[in-house]
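If I may wish for something, please walk me through the protein I am sending here so I can picture the backbone:
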Amino acid sequence: MNQRTLVIKGGIVFVEDAWLENRFLVIQDGCISAILSASDEPEVADSDVFNATGLYLIPGLIDTHTYGVEGIDTYTGGLDALLKLRQIFPRYGVTGFLPSVPACSRGEIANVAESCEMAMASTDHGATVLGLFSEGMSAHVQKSGAQRQTNEACTIEEFIEILYRYPNVFRIITLAPELEKSTPIFAACQDLEIIASLGHSIANNEQAAEAFVSGYNHVTHLYNAMGQLVEEGKDGAPSPGPAAGALFDDEVYTEIIADGFHVPPEFVRIALKTKHPDKMVLVSDSMRAAGTSFIGKMSFLGQVVEVTENVALLDTGRPAASILTLDKAIRNVVMWNAASLKGTIRMATKNAARMLSLFDRGQIAIGYRADIAALDSDLNVQATWCQGVQVHGI
């Protein structure tokens, strides 16, 4: 890469779950080469220094479930859209993301996979496309949410053929384990080392537990499009639902949409105070109205949704998608006292990276990629670096 040495000086750096004040980050060839105290300030040209005095320096955020932002869809605009999103997401501190694809025709899914594969190989500076998040191919009709079930949708056989055609593209696939059609997709996930995620499902706690034992190791948008924390048992007594099973299983990663509408703040607090802190992941599950001031009707996943100031709604009044960005999710969780700032940042950085088996990012540490976001005291993004190149901010 042979980049010139960059020093980000004076920031409050998040290192190993601790805040280190007035530190100097030295970046060479896209990676962090040193973390120095003020007394060890390196000598470099002024043009290679960014003054981060008073700013929090955190790992770049990783959004593992998004359908778009600022008017751009992840699944309809092809390669051009994904390349634009690589430039847009750093405005929100995001340095890596999984574009999402719903159930659609064979040709549409194949086109999205091909575009994603090319975007993953892009060497332009920007947020990294990390692969695809798929949902809707095996959704229970009672919990399909915004995922439409149409006759034009790709068949299971066609979908599996696409998975094998693009073996390094699909990273997470949401399945309802109680459905027979999930079985061959799950087998392909196991073969291709794709994360199988429980979601859009009516599985009860016992079925969910069986799925987790069999190899499902992720839960899509906790509480949404699934059974709840507590359900009524056969004898009328309260019984734990699949959401409870997800929270108490320390091996299963669990994503949550902290917008206050998909999940009320009280239930976010329950989840974050119950779940193993290394296994909870913040996601946006945003659609293209996120990051805009648009209010009104908009198409999404082949249907019309009502975009409000806070969420996109189906005609049933239920949430269709969020208009959340991941930096806003962090501010929400902290504001709701659901987790500490350190714990909240970890859910949008290290936890997401480890879930995807990425061990070169998600932390500020020597040898790691210099994917970094700078936040002010109100936790607003002021600057973002992708592999040591500033792609957002003054």
In short: Residues 60-355 form a domain with the TIM Barrel fold (CATH 3.20.20.140). The mean pLDDT is 94. The CA atoms of residues 221 and 256 lie 5 Å apart.
